[in-house]
């Protein structure tokens, strides 16, 4: 009887060991995946009004008379190469923007060129457009140290750089306008000039708000961070002291958009 009781105790002890082994292990956090980060891209929009009339008394000049003085939509794109990623991120970038403003033309009552007497009634079927294409070479610094270390979602930044702004005026037939000066010289309605630009802004890091969605974007598409942002921008397209007269097409305005780091 004692032998049977001993065997029963040994059997129970043996059965208890596998049960202990089957208990779930302690839950450990899965390490997050982070792809290499080398670039940033932006797309942004905002109001723009070229400062053409600033050199005219009272600020009433050809832009206000012809286009009504209202702002138009500026679309801008930027691609940055990130060079330093320790206490914040430093980068160099290339920016491209585009602005277009159209209005019906004032036809001539008589004559042409300098002899044109304008009819103040706009032509219904003839449009003239002003188009501006600024290109920028930028230096950028983003203070994202707190966002990377403590998941603070707000990232302030500054930009400064050199711009060259192309501009042209098209007639209703799509060709560049020409103006006949006194003495018979013909000037083309196109040009370009150098200038400086500066921006100050703040970006909201969306993956700091939803880390799970951020890890999924990084793992599937290689997008490290996604932002919505707002910035104040100044374009000083005044020719940087060039001797020939420069069309004052600079402006200060705000822009808002989306940014991605990858």
Brief account:
The protein has 262 residues and is α+β, with helices and mostly antiparallel strands.
Model description:
The chain has 262 residues and is α+β, with helices and mostly antiparallel strands. The strands form three sheets. An eight-stranded antiparallel beta barrel has the order 1-2-3-6-7-10-11-12. The radius of gyration is 32 Å and the shape is elongated. The termini are far apart.
**Which oligomerization state do the chains in this entry correspond to?**
single chain
Number of strands: 12
Strand content: over 45%
SS summary, helix count: 5
Given helix and strand content, the structural type is alpha+beta
Biggest beta sheet attributes: 8 strands, antiparallel, barrel
Give the overall shape, derived from the CA principal axes: elongated
Radius of gyration: 32 Å
SSE pattern: HEHEEEEEHEEEEHHEE
End-to-end separation in angstroms reads: 76 Å
Query: How much helicity do the residues have?
Result: 10-25%
Roughly what is the average pLDDT, rounded to an integer?
79
Task: Enumerate the spans where pLDDT stays under 50 for 5 or more consecutive residues.
Answer: 1-21, 23-31, 109-122
Query: Which sequence of strands runs across the widest sheet?
Result: 1-2-3-6-7-10-11-12
List the helices and strands and how they pair.
Elements: H1 2-21, E1 39-48, H2 62-67, E2 72-86, E3 88-104, E4 108-110, E5 117-118, E6 127-142, H3 145-150, E7 154-170, E8 178-180, E9 186-188, E10 190-205, H4 206-209, H5 211-221, E11 225-236, E12 251-261
Antiparallel strand pairs: 1-2, 1-12, 2-3, 3-6, 4-5, 6-7, 7-10, 8-9, 10-11, 11-12
């Amino acid at each position: 009887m004692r032998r049977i009781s001993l065997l029963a105790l040994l059997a129970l002890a043996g059965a208890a060991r596998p049960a202990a082994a089957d208990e779930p292990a302690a839950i450990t956090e899965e390490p997050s995946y982070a792809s290499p980060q080398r670039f940033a891209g932006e797309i942004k929009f905002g109001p723009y009004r070229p400062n053409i009339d600033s050199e005219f008394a009272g600020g009433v000049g050809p832009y206000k008379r012809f286009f009504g003085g209202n702002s138009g939509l500026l679309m801008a794109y930027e691609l940055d190469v990130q060079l330093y990623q320790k206490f914040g991120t430093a980068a160099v970038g290339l920016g491209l923007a585009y602005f277009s403003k159209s209005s019906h033309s004032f036809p001539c009552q008589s004559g042409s060129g300098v002899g044109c007497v304008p009819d103040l009634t706009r032509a219904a079927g003839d449009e003239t457009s002003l188009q501006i294409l600024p290109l920028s070479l930028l230096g950028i610094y983003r203070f994202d140290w707190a966002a990377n270390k403590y998941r603070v979602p707000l990232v302030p930044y500054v930009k400064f750089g050199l711009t060259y702004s192309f501009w042209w005026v098209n007639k209703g037939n799509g060709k560049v306008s020409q103006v006949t000066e006194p003495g018979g010289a013909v000037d083309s309605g196109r040009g370009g000039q150098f200038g400086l630009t500066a921006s100050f802004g703040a970006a909201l890091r969306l993956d700091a708000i939803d880390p799970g969605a951020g890890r999924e974007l990084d793992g599937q598409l290689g997008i490290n961070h996604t932002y919505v942002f707002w910035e104040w921008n100044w374009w000083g397209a005044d020719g940087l002291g060039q001797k020939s007269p420069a069309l004052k097409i600079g402006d200060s305005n705000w822009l808002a958009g989306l940014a991605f780091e990858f």
